[in-house]
């Protein structure tokens, strides 16, 4: 391969690596988006529960108790889904795949592209929900589980608010 062709090949590898890194960063941002929602929902439901319990006159203690149980469940689910390995953990688990800096540039880019693709995970045609005990092996697993966790917490939030509204009017 001539010097011009090698330069073109290196530029192609740089472009592929940049594309892979952009996709990795997109998933990391998505994980952050879903994980951020796991904390405020239980907090807001807790505030609503406390307000209804304090000022609602305790019209229906059973429903207030169920709302408090739902709140407790929300906190547990939120913590369980939020405790998944981050990118830095997935990267650290693959340190044996990190190429040494002494490699030729083309070999280094090829190795880093393979590493980032491994951390990203195999191509998937759709999102996959899963229970909180499911293991996270790549970024796509993390996004899918944190999205699932957020949806479960949101459903529990609606149930808690529904119980609180019912407790206040009955």
Helix content: over 70%
SSE pattern: HHHHHH
Low-confidence spans: pLDDT under 50, at least 5 residues?
none
Q: What is the general shape?
A: rod-shaped
Distinct helical segment count = 6
SS elements, strand count: 0
Strand content: under 5%
Q: Give the helix/strand class.
A: mainly alpha
- Integer count of domains: 1
Strand count, sense and barrel status of the largest sheet are: none
Can you give the mean pLDDT? 87
Q: Which radius of gyration do the C-alpha atoms yield?
A: 23 Å
User: Kindly, what is the distance between the CA atoms of the first and last residues, rounded to a whole number of angstroms?
Assistant: 81 Å
Describe this structure in words.
The chain has about 170 residues and is mostly helical. The protein has one domain (about 5-170). Helix content is about 75%, strand content about 0%. It is built from 6 helices and no strands. It has helices spanning about 5-35, 40-55, 60-80, 85-90, 105-120, 140-170. Helix 3 packs antiparallel against helix 6. The radius of gyration is 23 Å and the shape is rod-shaped. The N and C termini lie far apart (about 80 Å). The mean pLDDT is about 85.
Attribute tags:
170 residues; 0% strand; 74% helix; 6 helices
Short characterization:
By secondary structure, this protein is mostly helical.
